[in-house]
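F.,

This is the one I mentioned.
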């Protein structure tokens, strides 16, 4: 059984990865659909505003803090190699670090950066917007599932 500070770290891992999963789930299930239903110029402008607003300390603490916490949990697990929960802790850390944080860095952020550089009213932006919504949302589904999987894996490590 996991106990002491290790238990606290794991519970914080459940909370952080679960919160991020909820944010990404909301985007996948209704935010992106709502933005896609707008005229392209309005959808692009709204998404750009959301992407800028997402860089607030409140979200970044949860998002980046969860990545740091997952890395700490992985290192501590390798060092301590506990009798229980080892596989679940390593799987949870891997899911979040690669499936959430990594996917964000290599798939979602580059698309956001490209969108931010475009003129919302330009015809080529309308064309890009359609593919952006489709591709960004697919990658976001992956992030949501990976975050939720990390949270579940950490919960299993506690049982």
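My design for it:
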């Amino acid at each position: 059984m996991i106990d002491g500070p290790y238990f606290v770290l794991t519970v914080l891992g459940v909370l952080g990865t679960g919160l991020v999963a909820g944010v990404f789930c909301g985007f996948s299930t209704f935010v992106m659909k709502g933005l896609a239903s707008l005229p392209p110029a309005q959808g692009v402008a709204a998404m750009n505003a959301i992407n800028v607003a997402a860089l607030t300390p409140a979200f970044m603490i949860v998002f980046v803090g969860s990545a740091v916490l997952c890395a700490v949990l992985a290192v501590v697990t390798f060092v301590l190699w506990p009798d229980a929960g080892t596989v679940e802790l390593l799987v949870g850390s891997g899911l979040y670090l690669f499936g959430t944080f990594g996917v964000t860095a290599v798939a979602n952020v580059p698309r956001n950066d490209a969108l931010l550089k475009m003129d919302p009213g330009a015809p080529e932006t309308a064309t890009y917007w359609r593919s952006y919504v489709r591709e960004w949302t697919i990658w976001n589904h992956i992030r949501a599932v990976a975050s939720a999987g990390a949270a579940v894996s950490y919960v299993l490590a506690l049982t």
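The chain has five helices and no strands.

Talk soon.
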